Amino acid sequence: MKKFRMTACRGVLAVLGLGLVWPASPAAAQTTYLNDSVRTFVSRHRPAILQEFVEFLAIPNLASDTVNIRKNASALVRMLQRRGLETQLLGAGDAPPVVLARSPADPTKHTVTFYAHYDGQPVNKADWAHDPWQPTLVNAGTPGAADSDDSATRLYARSSSDDKAAIIGLLTALDALRAAGVPPSVNLKFFFEGEEEAGSPHLHEILAAHADVLQSDLWVICDGPTNQNGQPQLVFGSRGVVSAQLTAFGPNRALHSGHYGNWAPNPIVELTHVLSRLRTTEGEVTIPHFYDAVRPPTASERDALESVPNVDARLKAELGLARTEGQGALAERIMKPGLNVDRIEGGGTGPNPANAIPSSATAYLDFRLVPDLTPELVKAQLERYLRELGYYVLDGPPTAGDRVAHGRLLQLVWGAGYPP
């Protein structure tokens, strides 16, 4: 479940108020003043903030649900226009629209664009203790009687953190600045995407088509976690991603393992063997030349890493881990590219597996990318390596002829991706 605390707007308040000007002493004093002001504002207006948020969360937001995703966009337009912002929908065919909002522009000021997304992950209601489309306040596990002023209270709903919390945080921060009489020192734009959780397949097209209205000196991406120690954090980039489905094939129908085991190739075994050739148990990717394009951290980046709180020991205890992959702290490890196995399917599901050799097995992969390691480069590297390992690689289901002609057969289907 996703959960939201009423502190989401504090992390963006200083950026909204101070823009690109960070003189040491005055900025610190101004930030303290703004933090105090926003706490006062939230305390006074908490019911109204929560009501607006609850109404927004109650709208289902799966990107492929065309009717409801457009209801989300319409709700956003109303929320932004109530604050006097100029709004515009940026579309690409039938894709969920980007909701763009702008404050009146001052040509003497820099422009900062804040990004967030209003779509969410698919929902399986059976996994939820509460209806994900009926936002519920919970305190100490007890719904209904929770006190929204209590810092232990959580609001449970789909996207109540990722990523509608960022949207309500931004708008509340803007409201708080106005209430405090502090005009933003920059021109503001808000860019709210509607298909981030679907892989942002139309984002590049929308950015290219509307480059003129999206000109900005800085983009702030409000779609990430707090530090694991619970404190807000500002990061200077995030890894890109590209996903893939890798399928191995056995017989064209499931076969009894007692009758055909040790004779008919088992696609689950074949698939796990392939995966073991792609990465080690220490997280190192073994695809040839995978790291060639990766830049080492600069001296300033290494200095920044040294200042990040080391939370590894606490996280290992919390997560029940005796070891972690590779050498180095978490903050250092996520600077590297990686290959993750999201899921493996094969042989059916349920508590009583059949004694059978399945006809296929599929692994769902995601590659985490760093600067200069593009989706196109990773695609070419993996496809070349699989062929070097002796596999015949298809981008669609094999024909009957393919099955009998190629002893080692893989289907590789690429999903959406974007560079870091």
Task: Give the topology, please.
Layout: E1 3-4, H1 10-18, H2 24-57, H3 66-81, E2 86-90, E3 98-102, E4 111-117, E5 136-139, E6 142-143, E7 154-156, H4 164-179, E8 187-193, H5 203-209, E9 218-221, E10 240-249, E11 255-256, H6 257-260, H7 267-278, H8 299-307, H9 312-319, H10 330-333, E12 338-346, E13 356-357, E14 360-369, H11 375-388, E15 392-394, H12 400-405, E16 409-418
Parallel strand pairs: 4-8, 4-9, 15-16
Antiparallel strand pairs: 1-7, 2-3, 3-8, 5-6, 5-7, 10-14, 10-16, 11-13, 12-14
Helix pairs in contact: 1-2, 1-4, 2-4
List the defining traits of the structure above.
five-stranded mixed beta sheet, alpha+beta, single chain, Alpha-Beta Plaits, 16 strands, 20% strand
Could you walk me through the main structural features you see in this protein, from its secondary elements to its overall organization?
With 420 residues, the chain is an alpha+beta fold. It folds into 2 domains: 3-221, Aminopeptidase, CATH 3.40.630; 240-294 and 336-418, Alpha-Beta Plaits (2-Layer Sandwich). The protein is 33% helix and 20% strand. The chain has a 5-stranded mixed sheet with strand order 2-3-8-4-9, with helices on one face. Strands 12-14-10-16-15 form a 5-stranded mixed sheet. Strand 15, helix 12 (400-405) and strand 16 (409-418) form a beta-alpha-beta unit. Helix 1 packs across helix 2 (24-57) and helix 1 (10-18) crosses helix 4 (164-179). The radius of gyration is 25 Å and the shape is globular. The two termini are 27 Å apart.
